[in-house]
Design a protein that fits this description.
The complex is a heterodimer of chains A (about 120) and B (about 850).
Chain A lengths: L8 E6 L7 E9 L6 E9 L7 E5 L1 E2 L4 E2 L5 E5 L2 E5 L6 E3 L14 E7 L2 E5 L1
Antiparallel strand pairs in A: 1-11, 2-3, 3-4, 4-10, 5-6, 7-8, 8-9, 10-11
Chain B lengths: L1 H8 L1 E6 L3 H10 L5 E6 L21 H4 L4 H7 L2 E3 L4 E5 L4 E4 L4 E3 L2 E4 L3 E3 L12 E3 L3 H12 L3 E5 L3 H12 L3 E5 L12 H13 L2 E4 L4 E6 L5 E5 L4 E4 L1 E4 L3 E3 L2 H5 L10 E3 L10 E3 L4 E3 L7 H15 L13 E5 L2 E7 L9 E7 L4 E7 L6 E7 L5 H9 L32 E3 L4 E2 H9 L5 H8 L9 H14 L16 H10 L5 H8 L8 H13 L6 H4 L4 H4 L3 E2 L5 E3 L10 H13 L3 E4 L5 E6 L4 H10 L12 E6 L13 H12 L8 E6 L13 E6 L2 E6 L11 E7 L1 H18 L6 H7 L3 H10 L6 H13 L4 H6 L2 H4 L17 E4 L2 E4 L19 H4 L6
Parallel strand pairs in B: 1-2, 1-7, 2-3, 7-19, 9-16, 10-11, 10-16, 11-12, 18-20, 32-33, 33-34
Antiparallel strand pairs in B: 4-5, 5-6, 8-17, 13-14, 14-15, 21-22, 22-25, 23-24, 24-25, 26-27, 28-29, 29-31, 30-31, 34-35, 35-36, 37-38
Helix pairs in contact in B: 2-9, 11-12, 11-13, 14-16, 22-25
Classes of the chains: A mainly beta (about 120), B alpha/beta (about 850).
C-alpha cells in the first residue's frame, strides 16, 4: 500500500447529500503519486445503527464491478452489512469481511464534521 | 455369446396381455434382473391409460395416454410382441403359442388378459352404429360415428356409462343414458344419492332414463334407430353405446382347463396363482374370493403380489378397498365401503340439501363406534377424512353426524396422530403416512420436499391438505419449527406482512420495522415490504421513504447487468409498435451506442446504459410516447399475443386488442414475482399462452382462461380455469386471481408454485374466484380498480423529480464516469469487456493478501 501519502481527513460532500439507509458513491483521487490514482468508495448512512456512517470500497470482488453503493443495507445478526446488488453476498460495513465467501473489501475511516462528510485518506 | 448364456440361465416369464395391470406387472418384475420377461399383446398398441380414456375427446392423443414405449421396454430388457394373440397353452411342456405360430417357453406364465364390455343380447342390437367404450380403437369408431350422428344413447348408467355419456356429450350429440335399474351408479351409490345424481346429470343436459329395459332395436323414423322398451315407450337415436358392465377375458384359461368361476373369471388364491401353480392371473380377468375387481388399483396390488411371490418374497392379496372419489361431468361423487348399509345392524345418518344439490350419508356400526361406509354427492370435501376413519377403524366422535353436517360448529377433524403409519394418504401414488415420515427421515425439511420426494399429492391433488397436515405434524413432533419467517428481522410470512400492512394501515418500512420487526432489515425483507406497500398503496416506488427498500433494479428502473450497467426496456403492449416508434428506438440505441436485442416477450431490449445515461435515454423515449416496461420489477412484464382474427385466417377472436387492453390494465402492478401473460387468437396457440402465468386462448364462444403456467427452470402448463368467458367476465376473473395472488403469494413465488401450494389446488381457487367462497371477490376487485386507477409511468415521474434524478449521478463529488465500465465490439455491437480486455484506470485497494489481487483490474503495470 504505497498509494497514499500524507493521509488526512478530506471533505467529500455535504451531509445533506447522504441518503438515509442507503448508499452514495465518491471518487477519491490521489495525486500524491506521479500517476493519478482513482479509488471508488461507497458511503452508507444508517442513522439507526451504532456508527451511523460507514465507508467501504465500491468494487465488488465477487461480481467484479463497481456497484456496492447500490446494494441494500441492513444487518445480519446485528452486524451492519451491505448486500451486493449483483449476487447478494453480504459485506460487513465495519470490517469489510464478506460473510459468505473468503473475500474482503477495504474499510475507510469516515466522519461527519460540521455538516461535512469527511474521509481519512 | 456370453449374454445368450445369461439369457438361457434366466428364468422365463411370459405375460399375456399388456393393459394397465399387465404393464404394471412388467415394471414391478423388471426391477429384478434375474428374469427374462416376454410380453405378448393381442392389441396393436402397448399399454395405455384406460382410466383417462374420455380425455381422448378432450384433446389427448394416443401418445399422451401411452404408459410405455418400445424404447422403454427395450431399456428394461423386456421382449415384447404386439398383434400376438395367444391361442395355445401347453401346461405340461410349459409353452404358449400365438396365432401366427410363434412359441414361447415359460417358467411362470402371467395371464393379464383383462376384460371386455358386456353387450346384452338385444334383438336388432348388432348394427353398424352400435358400439362399445373400452379401447382407443373404440373411441376412434365412436368419433367417426358421431360425425354422422345427431343423437347418442348410452346403455348402462354405471360409472363407466356416465364416463361414456360425457364423451358422447363432448362430441356434440344430444345425449341420453338408459339404465335398467331404478337409479344411476347402483354399485357405488344408494337410492337417495342416485336420485340427486340423476337431477344433477340432467341439469348438465344429459337425459337420464331409469328402470328401462330395452326389448329390441329397430329402424327409426326420425333417426337411424329406435329403442323399444319393455314398458312400451321408445327412444330414437343415431348412435348406441353399450356400457353395461364388463366380463373377464377368461377364454384361454377356460379352453386349457384352468379353474373358472361359475359366472366367469379365472379363479386365483391369495398369491394370485390359478389352479396351475406356474400360471398366475391378475387384474380384471381374475376372480378372487368370488369377486372381480373392476378398478385399476386392486389390479396393481395383484401385480405387485405376483412379482414378489415369483421373486421368493412373501406376499398376499387380501382384497382391496373399492372406495372411489371422482368427478363425473363436473359432479363430485364419492363412495366409501358399505355405501348401501348392508352390514347387519348398521345405522345411517343422512344430510340432503336439495337447493344446493348436495347429498351425504354415512353408515356406522350398530354401536356407533366405527364408520362402515359413506355416499357423497355434490360435495366430496369430507371424503379423505371419512376414508381414513373407515380404513383405519378409528373410533368415531360422539355425534358422528357432525362429520357431514355443514354447520356443525366444531366439526370434528381427524387428528393425524390418530392415523397408523400404514394409512394411505395419497391413493393415486399409494403413499402412506409411513412413507411421508420416511421422507422426512431422509432429510425432507418442508412440505414441498415431502411432496416431490414421495409424489404424494401430485396425482389428483385431493389429498394435498392431508399431506400437509401429516408432514407439519411430524415436523412439529421433531421440534422442527415450521417457519414461515421471511428473514431474521420479521417473524412473519409475506402474506402475514400483507395483512399487517393493510389492516394496520402501515405506510412505511420504518413503521413496519418498529412495530413488528427487529434490527435494521436486510435485502430480503426490504424489497418484500416495498412490494407489499406498493401493492396496497401503489405509491411511486422512489418516494423518499421507499427509496432505500428497493433492489437496485427498482431503484434505477432498469435491470443491472454483470458490469454494473443497465438495460432499457420500454413497454410495447402486445408487441404492437408503429414504424415511427421503432425508428425512435433505433435512433436512441444508435445515439447512446446501446447493444440491441429483440426479447422473447416481443419487445426491444437496449443494453449497456450507464446510470448517468438512463435519464437522458428515458427522456427521449418518454417524449416519443414510450412508457417504462417494468422489465426490472416484480410486476407485469409482457402480454404476448398473436395477431388474432384481425389478420390471421384461423383466428376466432381479436387477441391483439385483448392483449393490449390487458397489458395496459395490469402494467405497474407489484406482485410477489414477475407475471407474464399470453393471449392466443385460436386453439393453435401461437402465443404459447399455456406457458404463462395467465394464459388466454380464444374459442368460438369467447375465451378459455389458464392459470399458473410457467416456462423457465420448471416448465408447467397452466391449469384450465374457466371456459368460454366473455370479455367482461374474463377481466373480472383475472382481476380477482391476480389480486388474490398478490395478497397470498410468498416472496418470489411464481403463480405456478403458488398454485401447487394452494391447499385444495385448482378447485379451491375456482371456488374463491368464481363462487366467492371466501366472500372477498368484491374487495379484490376494488383493490385492483384502485391500483389500475393510480397507475403512473415511473420513468415519467422520475424525470420530473430533480431529487430523484440525483441518484443517477455516479459520484457525489465528481462528474466523471465509472472508468471500469468498458466495451469492445462484437458482431458490430458493443459487449462488456472481459477482465483481460480492460484497460486499467481505477485503483482497487488490495485487502491483506487476498485472491482479488491477481485479478484486480488496476494493478499498475
Amino acid at each position: 500500500m504505497t498509494t497514499t501519502t500524507n493521509k488526512t481527513w478530506r471533505t467529500i460532500c455535504d451531509s445533506s447529500d447522504l441518503v438515509k439507509d442507503s448508499g452514495i458513491c465518491a471518487l477519491l483521487v490521489n495525486e500524491a503519486n506521479e500517476q493519478k490514482v482513482e479509488e471508488q468508495i461507497a458511503i452508507f448512512h444508517l442513522p439507526n445503527s451504532e456508527e451511523k456512517i460507514y465507508a467501504v470500497g465500491n468494487y465488488d470482488p465477487i461480481g467484479k464491478a463497481n456497484v456496492l453503493y447500490r446494494g441494500i443495507v441492513g444487518c445480519i445478526a446485528d452486524e451492519p452489512v451491505v448486500a451486493s446488488p449483483l449476487y447478494k453476498q453480504h459485506f460487513s460495513l465495519k470490517t469489510g469481511r464478506c460473510l459468505q465467501e473468503e473475500q474482503s473489501i477495504a474499510v475507510y475511516d469516515i466522519r461527519i464534521e460540521n455538516e461535512l462528510v469527511q474521509v481519512f485518506y | 455369446m456370453n449374454s445368450d448364456k445369461q439369457l438361457l440361465s434366466k428364468a422365463k416369464i411370459v405375460v399375456v396381455g399388456n393393459g394397465m395391470v399387465g404393464h404394471h406387472f412388467v415394471e414391478e418384475m423388471a426391477k429384478n434382473s434375474d428374469y427374462q420377461i416376454t410380453v405378448l399383446s393381442a392389441e396393436s398398441r402397448l399399454a395405455y391409460d384406460r382410466v383417462h380414456l374420455s380425455e381422448y375427446f378432450g384433446g389427448k392423443t394416443a401418445e399422451d395416454l401411452a404408459m410405455t414405449t418400445p424404447e422403454h421396454y427395450e431399456e428394461l430388457g423386456v421382449t415384447f410382441k404386439t398383434n400376438a394373440k395367444v391361442t395355445n397353452i401347453d401346461k405340461s411342456a410349459k409353452v404358449v403359442t400365438t396365432e401366427s405360430g410363434d412359441s414361447f417357453e415359460y417358467d411362470k406364465l402371467i395371464l393379464a388378459t383383462g376384460s371386455y364390455p358386456f353387450v346384452p343380447p338385444i334383438p336388432g342390437g348388432d348394427v353398424e352404429h352400435s358400439l362399445v367404450y373400452r379401447t382407443i380403437d373404440d373411441l376412434e369408431a365412436i368419433q367417426a360415428s358421431a360425425d354422422v350422428s345427431k343423437v347418442g344413447v348410452v346403455i348402462g348408467g354405471g360409472l363407466l356409462g356416465l364416463e361414456a355419456a360425457k364423451a358422447v356429450k363432448e362430441l356434440g350429440l344430444e345425449t341420453h343414458v338408459v339404465e335398467f335399474a331404478p337409479q344411476l351408479m347402483g354399485v357405488q351409490v344408494d337410492g337417495g344419492g342416485g336420485r340427486l345424481l340423476k337431477t344433477k346429470i340432467e341439469e348438465l343436459g344429459v337425459q337420464v332414463h331409469t328402470s328401462k329395459a330395452t326389448n329390441e332395436i329397430v329402424a327409426g323414423d326420425k333417426h337411424r334407430y329406435k329403442l323399444c322398451f319393455s314398458d312400451g315407450t321408445e327412444l330414437e337415436t343415431d348412435l348406441i353405446l353399450f356400457s353395461a358392465g364388463i366380463r373377464p377375458y377368461d377364454n384361454l384359461a377356460r379352453e386349457f382347463d384352468l379353474e373358472i368361476g361359475a359366472r366367469g373369471g379365472i379363479v386365483i388364491d391369495n398369491q394370485c396363482q390359478t389352479s396351475d401353480v406356474d400360471i398366475y392371473a391378475i387384474g380384471e380377468c381374475a376372480l378372487w374370493n368370488n369377486f372381480i375387481f373392476g378398478l385399476v388399483a386392486p389390479g396393481y396390488a395383484m401385480a405387485k403380489v405376483v412379482a414378489k411371490h415369483i421373486g421368493g418374497e412373501e406376499a398376499e392379496f387380501t382384497g382391496a378397498d373399492m372406495s372411489t372419489k371422482l368427478k363425473l361431468m363436473g359432479v363430485e361423487v364419492g363412495s366409501i365401503g358399505d355405501a348401501h348399509a348392508k352390514t347387519e345392524g348398521s345405522l345411517t345418518y343422512t344430510y340432503e340439501n336439495q337447493p344446493e344439490g348436495v347429498y351425504k350419508k354415512i353408515v356406522v356400526s350398530s354401536d356407533k363406534k366405527s364408520l362402515l361406509g359413506a355416499v357423497l354427492i355434490g360435495d366430496t370435501s369430507e371424503y379423505d377424512t371419512l376414508l381414513q376413519y373407515m380404513l383405519n377403524a378409528i373410533e368415531l366422535p360422539e355425534s358422528p353426524e357432525g362429520l357431514i353436517l355443514p354447520m356443525a360448529a366444531d366439526k370434528p377433524t381427524l387428528g393425524v396422530d390418530a392415523l397408523p403409519d400404514t394409512a394411505t394418504i395419497c391413493s393415486c401414488h399409494n403413499v402412506t403416512k409411513g412413507d411421508i415420515i420416511a421422507a422426512i427421515d431422509c432429510g425432507a425439511v418442508d412440505v414441498g420436499q415431502v411432496k416431490s420426494g414421495t409424489k404424494a399429492g401430485s396425482g389428483c391433488g385431493g389429498c394435498a391438505a392431508l399431506v400437509k397436515s401429516v408432514a407439519d405434524n411430524e415436523f412439529e413432533k421433531r421440534g422442527v419449527e415450521v417457519k414461515k419467517d421471511i428473514c431474521e428481522h420479521f417473524a412473519y410470512s409475506r402474506k402475514e406482512l400483507f395483512d399487517i400492512v393493510s389492516v394496520e394501515k402501515i405506510k412505511t418500512f420504518d413503521e413496519l420495522l418498529s412495530s413488528h420487526g427487529r434490527g435494521l432489515g436486510c435485502e430480503i425483507c426490504k424489497p418484500v415490504a416495498a412490494s407489499v406497500l406498493a401493492s396496497v398503496w401503489n405509491d411511486y416506488i422512489l418516494k423518499k421513504p421507499h427509496l432505500s427498500l428497493q433492489d437496485t433494479n427498482d431503484t434505477y428502473l432498469g435491470n443491472m447487468q454483470k458490469d454494473g450497467t443497465y438495460s432499457v426496456v420500454p413497454r410495447i403492449a402486445g408487441g404492437e409498435i408503429t414504424p415511427d416508434k421503432l425508428i425512435v428506438l433505433g435512433q436512441v440505441a444508435k445515439k447512446y451506442n446501446l447493444y440491441t436485442k429483440i426479447t422473447g416477450g416481443a419487445r426491444v431490449d437496449l443494453f449497456g446504459a450507464r446510470v448517468e445515461q438512463l435519464p437522458p435515454i428515458w427522456k427521449e423515449l418518454v417524449d416519443a410516447g414510450f412508457e417504462t416496461g417494468h422489465a426490472y420489477g416484480k410486476s407485469l412484464r409482457t402480454v404476448k399475443s398473436c395477431v388474432g382474427s384481425t389478420w390471421c385466417r384461423y383466428g376466432v377472436q381479436d387477441s391483439m386488442t385483448m392483449a393490449i387492453d390487458l397489458e395496459n390494465r395490469y402494467k405497474g402492478l407489484r406482485a410477489p414475482h414477475k407475471i407474464k401473460f399470453g393471449v392466443s387468437g385460436c386453439t393453435r396457440e401461437c402465443a404459447e399462452a399455456q406457458g404463462k402465468d395467465i394464459g388466454i386462448i380464444a374459442t368460438e364462444n369467447g375465451w378459455n382462461l389458464f392459470v399458473g403456467g410457467n416456462g423457465g427452470m420448471k416448465p408447467r402448463h397452466g391449469d384450465l380455469f374457466a371456459t368460454d368467458l366473455d370479455d367482461e367476465t374474463l377481466v373480472k376473473y383475472v382481476d380477482r386471481i391476480l389480486m388474490f395472488y398478490v395478497q397470498t403469494g410468498d416472496r418470489l413465488q411464481r403463480t405456478s408454485v403458488w398454485m401447487d401450494n394452494l391447499e385444495g389446488g385448482l378447485a379451491y381457487l375456482q371456488d374463491v374466484i368464481m363462487k366467492d367462497s371466501l366472500g372477498i371477490t368484491d374487495a379484490l376487485e376494488e383493490q385492483m380498480a384502485a391500483i389500475v386507477g393510480s397507475y403512473q409511468c415511473e420513468w415519467k415521474t422520475t424525470l420530473e423529480d430533480p431529487e430523484a434524478l440525483k441518484r443517477f449521478q455516479p459520484f457525489v463529488n465528481s462528474d466523471k464516469s465509472d472508468s471500469n465500465i468498458q466495451f469492445v465490439t462484437e458482431r458490430e455491437q458493443i459487449r462488456p469487456a472481459r477482465g483481460e480486455e480492460k484497460i486499467a484506470v481505477t485503483f482497487i485497494p488490495s485487502v491483506e493478501n487476498d485472491a482479488t489481487e491477481k485479478e484486480a483490474v488496476a494493478e499498475e503495470a
